[in-house]
Amino acid sequence: MRPTLLIGLLALSACAPRTATYTTVSVQNLRAAQQKGAYVLDVRTDAEYQEGHVPGAALLPLADLGARMNEVPKDRPVYVICRSGSRSAQASSQLVKAGYMQVFNVDGGMNAWTRAGYPADR
């Protein structure tokens, strides 16, 4: 390959848009962030939320996220939680596609949160 072609290809790859993604974190990471006032988004149903949720978590069911995404702040990290981590991964993906830059999916969800012995509001 000619040097000028190689340099051109390297320049193009450096300018290519990077695919934004979310980060999966443990409940221990969430607990530390939550104690510092992090924004926690619970994407379960209202009935699940009423059974117990991370203190201070905002409820926005996954089914409503697309229509109500403007309620989620873009200017701070968003920690997304559900029951087991599946719906929160879907929600995290939606948020990233909508331009959110600091999205954290909580691995294991509320199941892991309660197993770790962390408090839940009812």
UniProtKB/TrEMBL annotation:
The keyword Cell inner membrane does not apply. It holds the Pfam family Rhodanese. Keywords: Signal. Residues 34-122 form the Rhodanese domain. The keyword Signal applies. Residues 1-20 form the signal peptide. InterPro entries: GlpE_sulfurtransferase (IPR050229), Rhodanese-like_dom (IPR001763), Rhodanese-like_dom_sf (IPR036873), Thiosulphate_STrfase_CS (IPR001307). This is Sulfurtransferase.
